[in-house]
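User: Round two. Same drill as before: sequence, then structure, for each protein.

Assistant: Same drill it is. First protein:
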Amino acid sequence: FKPAGQIENTGDLLINKSEIDALRRFGEIIIDDNNTPVWFIDAISDPQVDKKLSATSGKSLRMSILMQLLSGKNGKQIYYVIPPGHRSTKGYKSALRSLSGGIKNFILKSFGCRIIRMGFSIGPFDNLNGQIDAMMSGSYHYFGLRDQKSLALAQKLNFKNPQYFPDLAWCYAPYPATAATMRADKDYVVLSFRSNEYGTSHQEDYLVPIVSKIKALLESGAKGSKVILSYQVQYDRDACIYIQQQLAGEFETELIDHKMLLPEAEGLYRNAKFVLSNRLHVLLLAFQTNALSIPLIKPEDNKKIVGIYADNGLGSMILDSEQDIALLTSSLGEILDNSTKYQQLFRDASQSNTGIIGQKLDSIFNN
């Protein structure tokens, strides 16, 4: 298993842990720990049963797999599992990296390795990178995309045999609620926002129109409640600080000024009146704790959220930050009035997707 390269995002921690937990029943897992911090490896693995590549080989993951294949001593089917997440590339250098990685994967495939990637989304690509990724998709034994928009793009670009595979957050099992992680107070809402469409740089101008809508929604749906600013992605810290500054004097606020990992985030979301965010895995993790998890997004900039919510019957929960305030506050009121219905819709979607994930994994690894 190749872990995520982006360790700054607790959402990647979430879906990497969920994937390994789901895969464990199918065989022995060796996790590539060569270029990933120990804390991340420990958080996604079970040291009682999972192995680290550094303890079994002094070579890179691909080279270790190739040596096993060439030796013929193993006698077992080897799978190379690439992490879930999102893939979007542009530029000549990215195309060269994709071409190089794809050729290496084709070599592994030619010797019998089955390469798997599932529970991820794609796009946008520039023309060159779209063509390269389409060509390299032939190296995969299974290529599973987590929303219908990504699947449609893969089909349009002639990817080889793309399949639907739900986001792995759907089958995530939260940590048990404990006194150490649960907040004593309950009269609060949680805000967690990024300040850009893509990338890592803070763009204050991106947030200016969103903050005015946040204020109106808080005044309408959370009057008198504390507003807690938190982040699961280190790059979102500046966005949280900016929003807190804009709310100062009008609302009681609290800033959790460090990147939250899974147990702490779950403890925070579990008691919230609702969670408002434009981060997909803030929303899905909050929902897994039975919190009311509401996207406030620009739909054109947040296609992952639109796709996954719409695919699972939750599209009416999406608040479009470009709509006028009266329509937004009315929509929020409807969601809050029907919170039990929406929480049940999520539970039903989670149960259904967990079942689909199990069935698809059986078809991949038991055939």
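Second protein:
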Amino acid sequence: MTILHISAVKSWGGGENHIENLCFELAASNPEVKNVVLCVKDELFHQRLSKTNITTETAPLAINLDVRFVLKIIKLSKKYKADIIHLHDPSAIVLAIIADKFSSLPPFVFSKKTSFPIKNKKGTLYKYNYSKIKKYLCVSEETKRITAASIIDKEKLVTIYHGTNISTKNTQTPFLLREKFTVDPSVKIIGIIGNHIRAKNFETLIETVNIIVNIRKRTNFIFIQIGSHTDRTDDLVASVKNLNLEKNILFLGYMPNASNFIPQFDALLLTSQSEGIPQVIYESFYHKIPVISTDVGGIPEIIEDGINGLLAPKQSPEILANQLEYLFNNENLIANFVAISKENLMKYYTTSIMAQKTLKEYKSIVNGN
């Protein structure tokens, strides 16, 4: 069986990490399954894949409908005799549909990795209900519920949690956070990992830090954020400066293998207003780092407030600040939180489990079920 994975994303994030993990796991457990990844030439995902043994092909994508990318899909489908084309983002769906109009392609699988609703527009609904899409692999039950509102054949919807790859964990980093930024041992490092995109809502992060530092006068926290800068970054930096928080929030930008820094955090904080389930939560579970998060997307499916972490409504900086203070005013809770999270991770949320569930769906399509 040959799977052609298509990614039209130009950054590196949890969705791209999922593709990488899926290919690694299937190569280890089912070497008879060949995985080929088509990604955007010279972008971060291509740079990442070039350092692996995953079969990688590239094409330019100057705009979202670049004909060169479309032609490459057709060429690779024939070259590798693909049995299934696995689409990993909305732009990939469009490119594959166009390619299918010129050269009949094998069946599609689409991974729905976010909880964004599908827009109720004719063209968008046509795209997501394209007849060649045989399965929708949803990252959470919440993502499945939201997606179902726009999908005609709801039997095609399946939930497969992505999880984390426990065999590739590494704690090597180019520097130690406490040493590089001279953080006193009494100060808690609150880590935030994510690219500067709207869904991550780092405006709420800044509001939360302002409450902790400027209003409540807490001096025992430092917030270190890792992730690619975007056109939103300048406004975030300006907000930090206006609130005199330059020493309290550090934006480190893109760091390869950012999750390797997680063991250096005292807690992970997520302020997202929309999510599927962020990969970084699973990785924090593995490293036994407590998580404080907004309760968006599928996050409440893996974190139960007060049982294995702390949750707050989206856009609620006051409550997030309360949860941060509560956690470190009651540090005896941390051991139980992280123990439950690690146990759940090993039982339900590893990439080996994800890969076998995905392979089951591939086989059902190839066998005509």
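The CA atoms of residues 2 and 34 lie 5 Å apart.

User: Perfect.
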